[in-house]
């Protein structure tokens, strides 16, 4: 994928990767620490980490043999900004629906008098 937003959403499409990001939001962690809650092999976790790294959502440091992973939040901010535009659209749509439903309720109440 060529653009950052597409890479971010592709990486977020998998629940395992979302869970890994949620864990990293608490602080950096090793591959073994990230793998603990999952019933999958370390190579499978490493594949998920590579997808997250390619999307720019995590970075991996080097401290001797320890390679901690940490969250990189900038791509998530871009995705949140994109989604926010559509939230405003839905809020406006729900406001219009609410207004319409209230007008229908008013007509029903007046019609029963």
Q: How would you sum up the major sheet?
A: 2 strands, antiparallel
So what's the overall shape?
elongated
Second rung of CATH, namely the architecture: Orthogonal Bundle
CATH superfamily: Winged helix-like DNA-binding domain superfamily/Winged helix DNA-binding domain
- Look up the CATH topology: Arc Repressor Mutant, subunit A
DSSP helix fraction: 55-70%
Q: Tell me the total number of β-strands.
A: 2
What is the total number of structural domains?
A: 1
Task: Give the radius of gyration.
Answer: 22 Å
Distance between the termini: 62 Å
Q: What are the segments in which pLDDT stays under 50 over at least 5 consecutive residues?
A: none
Average pLDDT reading? 88
Q: So what's the CATH class?
A: Mainly Alpha
Structural class: mainly alpha
Q: SSE string, helix = H, strand = E?
A: HHHHEEH
Proportion of residues in extended strands: 5-15%
């Amino acid at each position: 994928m060529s653009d950052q937003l597409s890479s971010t959403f592709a990486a977020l499409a998998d629940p395992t990767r979302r869970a890994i990001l949620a864990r990293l939001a608490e602080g950096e962690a090793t591959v073994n620490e990230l793998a603990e809650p999952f019933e999958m092999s370390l190579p499978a976790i490493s594949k998920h980490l590579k997808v997250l790294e390619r999307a720019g959502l995590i970075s991996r440091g080097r401290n001797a043999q320890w390679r901690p992973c940490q969250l990189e939040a900038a791509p998530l901010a871009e995705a949140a900004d994109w989604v926010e535009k559509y939230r405003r659209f839905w809020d406006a749509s729900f406001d219009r629906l609410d207004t319409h439903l209230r007008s229908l309720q008013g007509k029903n109440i007046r019609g029963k008098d």
